[in-house]
Amino acid sequence: MLGTVGGLVGGLAIGAAVGWLAKPEAAVRTVTQIVGEPGRTITTTVTQAAPTVERTVTQYVTAPPREKAKINVIAFAQGFAWPELFGPDGTTETDLLKRFEASENVDVTIEWGDEWAVREKVAADVTAQVGKYDIVLVGSDGAVQAYGYAGYLEPLDEYFKKYPQDYFDPNDVYPSFLDANRIEGTLYALPYYSFGPGVIYRRDLFEKYGAELPKDNWTTNDLEIAMEKILEGLRRDGITDVYPLTMRAGPGEEPTLDLAGFIYAYAGYPAWFEGGAIWPGEIRNKKAKPIFDSSDFEAGFRAFTDWAKKFGPPGISTHTWVDMMNTYAVGKAAILMPSAINGYAALGITQDENVKKYTRFMLTPFGPGKKRINSYWTFSLGINKFSKNKEAAWRVLTYLTGRKSMEAFAERTGWPNVTMRSVLYSYPLIKKYGIEEIEHNERSVLENPAIYFPYIPELDLFMDKIGTTASEVVAGAKTVEVALSELQKWATDLMTSRGYYT
Amino acid sequence: MREEYKLLLPAVCVLAFLVAAPTFYLFYTSFLRWFLRDPTGPTFAGVENYVKLLQSSDFAISLTVTLIFSAASVTFSLLLGLGLALLFSEDLRGKRIMRTIIVLPIVLPPVVVGFTWKFLLSSEVGVIGAYFMRLIGLGNLSLLGDPTLALVSVIIADIWGKTPLPFLIFLAGLAGIPSIYYESAKIDGAGSWQIFRSITLPNMKKPIVVAAILRTIDAFNSFDVIFVMTKGGPGMATHTLPMLGWKVGFYYFDVGTASAIGVILLLIVMFLSMPLIRSISR
Fold first, then answer.
1. Under CATH, which number does the domain B48-281 receive?
2. Which end of chain A has fewer CB atoms within 10 angstroms, the N or the C?
């Protein structure tokens, strides 16, 4: 017994001693990583068991900056834009935001305001060259042009090459939404939610009053005839508080996005300056004068104002996009156009069962100029030229406008007004609208150019003046002839004072 | 330095910093050609901004609208305020509650006043603009869409919101008239109109002038209610000078021209207020 135990113990001891003496020697593997650009070398030591292989692996990795960057964003639409990041109140730091911040080593803060306040703050910041806001909200209807030409926004094309990222794939974005943020080819902002032109209509009202349903290659004549029929039918039924058409014709810049689309469709080109010039250099070189009193401009202007007066609600001359949306949502309009996004917004808030059930989308009609009535706008963000953290700002910017943000937008709102093809053809939107309507939405963006008015630094002045002029005509305060004559004089004086014709 | 001037010095310093310095800066910038978004910065332009304004149809329209709006709003709010004050200075049942209700609009922010009236007068969904107007057969008229009616609407909204101030001033003024005057007049057989014309009005001269000055300044500077209700529309039917100044300054970012509008507004209000102030100083 004792012998057996002693033998076992002795054997174990000898085995342990042999094992200890014969253990393989630990090998060291060195991995060299070069991080970021310019290179920063990190040497990592890894211990592994035999067989020993020593390798050096060189990897080029774009890693987050070592120092945590604070990125300030300014935007409007608090609670509507990016609630998945900033909460429904716009002030919460959600888990998703925290994860993004940790992964990119950034600290994102966002300042909200109403649209006017945001514009003023952006203007103050960029002109004072403070760089308080790293990412600024700019619209494609004036701010991109004004700040891009003034050199207050970072050109972004090089950023795609210098700082590759996985959030925003420019090949997935519809080209026109990027074009809307380009000035003479240079990209200055990335779009978040955006829209192209379309007609939102009530199929039941068309059918009830025998109006021909909107179709792919319909014309403005077809639409006018349809609206006449609907108006006649409504009045015959004694219905005086439902109208064939709702648009926005309030004073200021708002109507001009849509009105410019009418001008484009009727003239066949952006008929604002001689020869259809749209770039400042072009206007200067050709000394292209404004042509607001020409028949080309007048045709589309008259169509817009005539339709608003004849087919729109009585208060249309003060209507903004909110009034336009509300009028459709409460079932008081058969058609909403051409900024169809407001129709989708109406669908989201309506309590009217007929509006929910019978609303459809169609491409806008062709005008006499063989172009469809147009309307484009992008909610865009750009990098402040005076930002002290441009690379970090780029990562945040691409995330805010990237695929995940677009998917969240589409799922939350149910609107098809997204910038990316992959998101437009995603399950939630196809399930909601059907493949045909999604295809129509895609075609509206593919077939219509984003630049259908001049891209000049003075654009927002023109937007405001033209919109106010249209409102005056719709309200009956002026005739088209008088209004356009005054507009022509104003425009010529402005362009002359800005040195275009010297 | 005389003692009284030494005592005034702190107040003068504060006024100089808060009032005089910004006013001088306003005058200074009105002589500059300064587009905030233009990287070249400001340049001296002399009276160019003033000349441009005087030749501008937008300025002429805005000035006309401002004068009409202010004249109507001031006149009717003073008349209404005086009438209500006369009524509620009598011994009426429930007058305390009624006085409180009358004064309520003044505690509302102007933006709230604007939105309230906008929705009331909306020709699509408003109680007045849609339902009442249709009831009386005027459904095809839009109170905010017709240029004349829109101006009347914003004037009414402004009167509604601002009448409580003259009402309170007049109420205090009426309380300060010795009752013995009225007793003597009644004993002498004077009628109501005679009493009003010979006793009430002369004794209310200073409160009326004070209320007129305050209301005039306020009416000329009115912006929020109009902006919310009509944004200066339809067209330019309710587009006042303050709205033009805001648009030129904060939308066009033309600092020089916006400053010139500010100077002109200041001069107009001073021109209107000075005679009134002198009349009560004598």
1. 1.10.3720.10
2. N
